[in-house]
Amino acid sequence: MKNFDLSLYLVLDANLCPSPQDMVRVTLEAVKGGCTLVQLRAPEWKKKKQLEAALLLKQALVGTGVPLLIDDHVDITLIAKADGVHVGQEDLPPNEARDILGPDAIIGLSVGSLLELNSVTDAVDYLGVGPVFSTKTKKDAGLAIGTDGLGSIVRKATLPVVAIGGINATNASSCISAGANGVAVVSAICGSDDPQKASRTIYKAAFG
Amino acid sequence: MKNFDLSLYLVLDANLCPSPQDMVRVTLEAVKGGCTLVQLRAPEWKKKKQLEAALLLKQALVGTGVPLLIDDHVDITLIAKADGVHVGQEDLPPNEARDILGPDAIIGLSVGSLLELNSVTDAVDYLGVGPVFSTKTKKDAGLAIGTDGLGSIVRKATLPVVAIGGINATNASSCISAGANGVAVVSAICGSDDPQKASRTIYKAAFG
User: Would the ipTM clear 0.90, i.e. be above it?
Assistant: First the structure.
């Protein structure tokens, strides 16, 4: 049985964490604050630097039980022995990722509409649904779907859902109320002076 | 024994060939004109589109004996069953690519200076050396090293070398004279109205 917890899903952003070392620092603080899953998302970085970050993060997370996922790149996932990969609609198909990574890998897929639910296959373990609110950290994100849009996708989905896009302590609970299993947070943790406190505050806001 | 011929190495450019279908058309014409190796380089495209192009190109090249290499992405190379990968100094390390792709894959490494020769390992099969002349098709290419720079790297290199960067029919022979085994061409073929004729003309200019 695959063991992962979408409750407080940290997405590390290369602009807010400009070095692999920054990413490690934010991650360790966030894990102390209750973060349950970490994704490395650094499309701006060349792959050597992304791999360096993945290796450091994987090492830093040893013993925490918190899995590390890699955005987009199945090869980096494989080399860094990360726990899985998150792919978007225009990235490598989940089935191809599964063939390479094997049955134990965690594979997530971004879904931004009911139509995109058609791209879900048996290879997918969870859905990242959004952007729920408007966001500046992902340039190619679509229009915000709101908690109504989130709810309509959750009701049709047969997999666990993590809500993403502009989520912070003030709106996290509305995503859980709409049916999401967890919240994915980027700038509200990566951009915070105190990632541990920010994580704890968002977790409490979401789950009480 | 690995079998590849660097003589006339076509690098498909996503800006000059805006669709996977354009890439297939240019490739088939170039192969008729004497092209011996093809690389897919489309960093501007999301990986789903790059994979689509790789699969179409691999299929189009069946029976031609011309190998297909993928720029940067080991995962796409694996999924598309391409013949190998070309990596730069800031991409995934050649040794990691070799571990994933196995002994039969062709692995190329970009080298732009004598210092960068230090990054060559047993995992590498050939070197892409340049930019020899100034180029507009690769945004992150360094300053042109000229045929003198090319020659100095060729003399120290223990692997076959393909020259790259601003190469066309007027300067191809100077690269071969400087010791390169072949020339890699981007815009002089991809940007030509007649890629077959352009390939034949460059091949003749380079090798007589």
Answer: yes
Q: Is the pTM of this model over 0.90?
A: yes
pLDDT digits (tens, 9 = 90+) for A143-193: 899 999 999 999 999 999 999 999 999 999 999 999 999 999 999 999 999
Rounded to 5 degrees, φ, ψ at B147 are -75, -25
Question: Does A92 contact B74 at a Cβ distance shorter than 8 Å?
Answer: no
> Helices H, strands E: what count in chain B?
8, 8
- Domains in chain A (CATH in brackets) are 8-207 (3.20.20.70)
Partners of B8 in the beta sheet? B183
- Chain B hits for A100, CB-CB cut-off 8 Å, are 75, 78-79
| Interchain contact, B92 vs A49, CB within 8 Å | no
Alpha helices in chain A (DSSP H): 20-32, 47-60, 74-79, 94-101, 146-156, 172-177, 187-190, 195-207
Closest alpha carbon to A86 in A43, A29, A48, A147 = A43
Q: Check if A44 contacts B (Cβ < 8 Å).
A: no
The string of DSSP codes covering A135-175 is -SS-TT-----HHHHHHHHHHH-SS-EEEESS--TTTHHHH
Residue pointed to by tokens 């930019």:
B131
DSSP states of B165-203 as a string?
Answer: SS--TTTHHHHHHTT-SEEEESHHHHT-S-HHHHHHHHH
